[in-house]
Every structure is written in C-alpha cells, then in structure tokens.
Design goal:
By secondary structure, the chain is mainly beta. It is built from 9 helices and 38 strands.
C-alpha cells in the first residue's frame, strides 16, 4: 500500500541528519517573524474572560462541598466538607478556620456520599437554626440521605450536635447520585435535591416515578409542622404523587441555587454519558430523565417528549464530566456577567455563563477543574471551592500576551506555504493498518517530533510522543480538502486538538475557535470544538490514536517506489531506539473474519471502551488483544437502554438483530456510536461486524 505523499528518500545517515536540522530550524533567512516548524507549537491565546484569585490563604481544607454566609452577615463564611465537618472563618485575608460542627463519625463517606450541603434558616440571627444534608447508615439500601436541623445558641460560634432533629430521611438504593444540596428559597421554604438513586441509566425508573422522592427537587415547610408541613401549591399536595415534590425528572442535581434578584431556581444536573444539563426549574416541571438526556431521547431513537422540559443549556461529556451548578452573578467586579448563571465542569475545567434565554458564553477553558461548589457573598461576588482545599474569587482576567497559535495553517510550519495541501520537508507521513471511520473522508497523516527527542514504547504497544510533537491529519471528502486537524502535545505535557477549516478554493485554512459545520454534496461536515478532540483521544488510549505498534507495523512505499518497513524507518530517524516486535492489526480480505471485525472495533471503539476510560465507558474492553471472553459484551445485558430491541444483548451470538453494538453503529440519533464526530453510517464496517456476529455460535 503506497502513501499519497512521499515520506523521505532512503539515503542513509546524511538524510536523517538533514531532517533533524530541518525540524530544529527556527526559521528561514529573511523570515519576519520566524516561521514555525510544526514542533513546540504554542497554545492559542486564552479565550478566558475570568481568572480565579486565591483568597483566605489560611483556609485550606480538602473535600469542601458547600460554602455559605449566614443571612445578612458578610463577616463570616461556613464551609461544609464531605468528610462530615462544618468549619467557620472570618471574611478576611488572615482568616483561620475552626470546626463548629463535627459529624464525621456519623456520616457515610463513599464516593459521592458524605456531608453534602448546609443551609442557614432565613431567621438564623434570631433562631440559630442550621440545616445539614448528609448520608447516614441505615435503611434497606446502601444508606440514607438525611436532612437534619441543628441549633446554635452563640450565633454560630458552635453548633450544638446534641440539638440534631431529623427532618427527612430517604433510602438510597445505590451509593451514587445522592444529590444532597439544600437551601431556602425566597418563599422561606426549604428545598432539597435528590438524585435518581444511582447505578447507571436509572434502572429503577425513579426519575419519572412521582411516588418516590428520588430524582426530584423537594420543597417543604420546616416552620409549619413537625417535622415539616407540605406547601399547599406543591404539585402533588392533594395526591397523585409524593407531596414533597416540587419538580422531578432529574438525574443528579448536585449543586443548584436561587437567583437572589428574580427568585429563579437554577440547577446543574449531572448527565449519564453524553449530556450535562443546566435547568431552570419551575413548580411542577418534569425535566425528562430517564426518557431524555439533555434535549435528546435517552438510549432510544424516539421517545414521548410531551410535557418534558429541555435544559436551558447542555454540553457534551467529552471524556469524564460532572456539571457543577453555581450562582447567578449579582456583583460589581464582572458587570458583563450580571444576571447570568455561572457553572462549570469538575473534570473538563470549563467555566460557562448562561442567561435565561439560553445564550452560553465560555468564561474559562480550564480554571474550573476540581471545583465542587460556588458561594456568593452578600455583595453578589462569586467564590469557588476547590476539592483540594483552596477557595477562589472570580475576577476579570488580564489580556494575554504572546503570539499564540497562528490563525492560518500555512503559518504553522505544518504544511508547505507554497503548496499548503502537502506536508513540508521535515515532516514524516505515516500510514495505519485500520483507519478510524471519518464519514467517508480519505485522510493524509504526518508527524513532527522535536529534534533529538525519541518516542517511548509502552507495554501495551502504545507509543508516547515527546512534548513538542504534532500530529497532522487532513481530510478530503471527494475531491474537496475540507479540514486539517493538529493534535499537539504542548511543552507542559498536555494534549490539545485544533481544527483548521480550509477555504472553499483550497488555498489555506483558518483556525477555528468553536465547532462549525459545512454543507458538502450529500452530507454535512462537522468541525469539532476544541474540547471535543479529547473525547476520542482519551488519556486511557494514550491520546495519539493510531500511533501504536499494531497500527504502524506495515510496509509502505517510499518516494523511489521501494517497499520499506515503516517501523524500521522510524528507527532510522532516531525516533525509536530499536525495531520493536509487534503484531499488525489485520485488515486484508484474506485475514480471518473475527480478526478483521475485532481490529475494526479496536480502531473505532477501544479508545473509549477499555480499562481506565472515562465517563463509565470502561465496563467493556474492545482492544484487539483482549480475549473475547474478557471483552464484556458477549451475551451481556445492556446497561444503558435496550433501544427497544426485545431481549437485547450487547452482542448476541448468531443474532445481529439483537446486538446493540451493531444497532448503535447504524443509528444516527443520540444512541449512535461513536457518540460524536460522525453523522454518516460506515456501512462497510457495520457489515463486517454484522457478519462476524452472525458467524458466532456461542460465547467463549
């Protein structure tokens, strides 16, 4: 199999040395500024609109999950920790924290469980009441979700543990999706959010069951009865469901808050595997789980959507994701954010804002990583609680300086400026045995590595590229050159993906800041957002997909028409210390059917479906080297919906029509695999997998 562009002429050490000089050269004589050489590429200028400023440096308490001030009191903060303590500190630079309530010996701490929320009674100054949400042992399931009232007789200097009065208890069938946030609304009533009970996919159907308190936002009157009264306008106050319910159809409302000016209730609802949600919750609202995830039907091509309220905003789970609901900004330091709800993702680190109309703005691309909760002071300024212990205040971000990543592809050094559709001298084209499906596009691939650097060979056959390396991939649809993507390992060791969209005439390509689309003949081509690149390029798969021995162990044709071993060539270049032993992924029609099907699943699916993969995708292992008996799909019942297929299995031996892996490959709705990046079914690949399933008589 020949390459579309020549690699290098095979002329020994002199050529290899010349290549290394080309890779390391900072520019050409007369260049102003020096032209890049596709290595050590800088990150683009930050698009962040905010920064996080560390405050209260004397307070560094890991595991913080809630940060509040007493009503009308701007002099103190109270921080709840998952481990079971509530600490208090002054709102000053030299603040030091002291424990005011310790429930650590009574709290179940297990994954998402623990002490999860605190709320001061609106009349705290006169009645000293503080309400606490935590998980406690007991019940018929994993543990209990409990709301208790505590009382302080000294204005919060200490909270009397002996004063605990249990208000509400709910059995949790599983250990996750506990929700747990609580707070008083502008109506003086106590609101409490609970998840669907846990596991995956809401197996008990709690989200749509109004006869359970799970998967719902509750509202109770803690002053009107013992232990509470039901507000008369709750949707089921007169029957038809649990009277405590205010709204339902939620999966895991981990953090939420009221807009202190409008009274609107904003909720961050943690999603399953595809969508994270922000909802504006209203009395009697049904927010769809588990009929829908985000605005799409969950695990089905169609669903009954009548009466379901879609989120105000949603974003894709691109690796691991957990939305952290924040607050509506009402401060003065960031006037452009007034009236906008601030939220972030614990894993991705992105911080967004959204208004009531659903207009979303990215505030920071990475500052939110590790944030578990937001607090708001009496002046409306916003503070972020980091799980590792720090507390940060949101402030304006100074403008970045420096050149950043070039806006035009021809300026990166990753293409020849005189012929920008081809790799320049100094970059090496490579080929893979089993290409990843890209909606029918043909692809050209080349690679740049900094001079003097080498590639590490991992035990599983993945190759780890050194910092400064760049992978270049260009996509042709028919005769049109549509897109070139750069996957860059920056000098800090982190990876990032960048998309360049080619001009219709094919003269050059521009760097995109956000996702985009282009209508082509017979299809629509989607350009990924920057964060979406790492959805497939997972850390578990080594980020650089295709750069693994099984894919690269092949014969290629050089510029002289000679057949050469691709890995031998990389040894000649000094990229590999020695020719590693490898087993190439099978792709020839003469190779066994099962081997070709397993190789296809490896190339197209195993980056997400393997051990240590994020977002719950590691339950199955589709790597080629994993024996079928250990893959976890053969005759296995589905975990995330059956797509309406009777007696469905992930893979039903001899029965492709009952096999969900095939159904998902042929779906073009939210049930599609891969989940993003494709809008065209790979009929050839699906036929290969279908034939393999049909050939199986039983599981091994």
């Amino acid at each position: 199999m020949g390459s579309r562009a020549a690699l290098l002429r095979r002329s020994g050490v002199a050529l290899v040395a010349a290549l290394m000089v080309a890779l390391s050269s900072p520019g050409c004589p007369g260049d102003d500024p020096p032209r890049l050489r596709c290595v050590d590429l800088p990150r683009p200028p930050s698009l962040d609109k905010i920064a996080l400023e560390r405050v209260f440096p004397g307070v560094s308490i890991p595991g913080g999950v809630d940060l509040v001030q007493p009503p009308g009191d701007d002099s103190r903060w109270f921080l709840a920790t998952q481990g079971g303590q509530v600490v208090a500190f002054d709102a000053s630079d030299d603040a030091a924290a002291s424990v005011v309530l310790d429930l650590s010996d009574a709290v179940v701490v297990d994954g998402e469980a623990g002490l999860l929320g605190i709320a001061f009674h609106p009349d705290f100054a006169s009645n000293g009441e503080l309400f606490v949400s935590y998980n406690a042992p007991g019940g018929g399931g994993a543990f209990l979700s409990r709301v208790s009232r505590f009382t302080s007789v000294d204005d919060g200097e200490a909270i009397d543990r002996a004063s605990e009065a249990i208000i509400l208890e709910v059995e949790q069938p599983y250990t996750n999706h506990n929700g747990g946030d609580l707070g008083f609304g502008p109506d003086g009533l106590l609101y409490f959010g609970l998840g669907d009970g846990g596991s995956a996919g809401d197996p008990q159907g709690n989200g749509q069951d109004v006869d359970t308190l799970l998967g719902a936002m509750l509202r109770i009157d803690v002053d009107g009865g013992s232990p509470y009264a039901i507000p008369p306008d709750n949707p089921f106050a007169q029957g038809g469901g649990r009277p405590e319910i205010f709204a339902w159809g939620l999966r895991n409302p981990w953090r939420w808050s009221f807009d202190r000016e409008t009274g609107d209730l904003w909720v961050g609802d943690v999603g399953q595997h595809v969508w994270e949600e922000v909802n504006r919750v209203v009395l009697g609202g049904n927010y769809g789980w588990n009929v829908k995830e985000g605005a799409e039907c969950y695990a089905a091509d169609s669903c009954a959507e009548d009466g379901l309220i879609d989120p105000v905003a949603a974003y894709r789970n691109t690796s691991a994701a957990s939305v952290i609901g924040g607050v509506v900004y009402r401060g003065a330091a960031l006037p452009e954010l007034v009236g906008r709800f601030i939220y972030s993702d614990f894993y991705l680190g992105t911080i967004w804002s959204v208004d009531a109309a659903g207009s979303v703005t990215v505030l920071s691309e990475g500052e939110g990583r590790g944030i578990t909760a937001y607090g708001q002071d009496q002046a409306g300024e916003v503070y972020a609680v980091h799980y590792d212990g720090g507390i940060y205040r949101l402030r304006p971000r100074p403008a970045d300086e420096g050149p950043g990543l070039p806006a035009r592809l021809s300026e990166t050094g990753c293409v020849d400026p005189a012929a920008p559709t081809t790799p320049p001298a100094g970059l090496v084209e490579y080929e893979v045995n089993v290409p990843f499906w890209s909606d029918g596009a043909t692809k050209s691939r080349w690679l740049a590595i900094p001079a003097g650097k080498a590639i590490a060979v991992e035990d599983d056959g993945d190759l780890t590229l050194p910092p400064g390396s760049t992978l270049v991939k260009s996509f042709h649809v028919g005769e049109a050159l549509v897109e070139t993507r750069l996957l860059v390992r920056h000098d800090d060791g982190g990876w990032a993906g960048y998309s360049y969209r080619w001009d219709p005439e094919g003269g050059d390509a521009e760097l995109l800041e956000a996702a985009d689309e282009r209508a082509l003949e017979g299809q629509t081509w989607g350009f990924p957002a920057r964060g979406e690149c790492l959805f497939c390029h997972t850390d578990a798969a080594g980020r650089s997909l295709g750069i693994e021995l099984g894919q690269l162990d092949r014969t290629i044709v050089d510029a002289d028409g000679q057949a050469v071993d691709q890995l031998d060539r990389w040894v000649e270049l000094g990229w590999l210390a020695a020719r590693p032993s490898a087993t190439p992924l099978p792709a020839a029609p003469s190779d066994p059917l099962e081997a070709r099907a397993r190789a296809y699943l490896h190339a197209n699916c195993s980056h997400c479906h393997r051990p240590m993969a994020p977002g719950g995708r590691s339950a199955i292992d589709l790597r080629y080297a994993t024996p079928l008996a250990d893959v976890g799909i053969c005759d296995a019942a589905p975990r995330s919906g059956d797509l309406g297929i009777a007696d469905a299995r992930l893979l039903a031996p001899g029965d492709p029509q009952r096999s969900l892996i095939l159904a998902r490959m042929r779906s073009l709705s939210s049930t599609r695999m891969p989940e993003i990046g494709s809008a065209v079914v790979d009929e050839e690949g699906a036929a290969l997998v279908e034939a393999w399933i049909a050939s199986l008589s039983a599981c091994p």
